[in-house]
Amino acid sequence: MRILPILKTIIQNVCELSKSVDTQNGSDILIIQNLYQLVYQLQTLFPKTFSTEIAIINEDIQHAVDFINSNYHRNIMVVDVANHVNITRSHLFKLFKKNLNCSPKDYLTYIRMYHASQLLINSNLMICEIALKVGYKDPLLFSKIFTKHFEISASKYRTNFSNRQI
């Protein structure tokens, strides 16, 4: 089939382009997350198309990303992700830097901040409740990280970006 080499080239190009994504932008992180999920599923559907020696998406990174995406709302840490994937924190860090151009901790923070921003815009939940829903036990720590990430406080973010009155 001629389409398979074309598909492989497109996937390799997507993976290369993903290395230059702005990791400070939450929507870029979600785009990359979805692209990696797509590539992983394509590899699963067409295993003979991809070399087993040079996997386009490392299985460990995919499992780590899936674990973070499914558990960001819990009080998880990088060591929990590494343990889930059964690799060292150091190896996990190298995989994230190589594949996502950010650390596992940064990726976890980006995912949490994205979901927090959506909750701020689309719900009436108090900020302390949102903090808990995205994996922070301490609302003050959440507020500090949110402000650092978006360069605006959570309450101002809600005021500025909410489409309805809260």
From TrEMBL:
GO molecular function: DNA-binding transcription factor activity; sequence-specific DNA binding
Keyword tags: DNA-binding, Transcription, Transcription regulation
HTH araC/xylS-type domain ranges (all copies): 62-160
Family annotation (SUPFAM superfamilies): Homeodomain-like (SSF46689)
InterPro entries listed in its UniProt record: Homeodomain-like_sf, HTH_AraC, HTH_AraC-typ_CS
Origin: domain of life: Bacteria
This protein's name: Lactose operon transcription activator
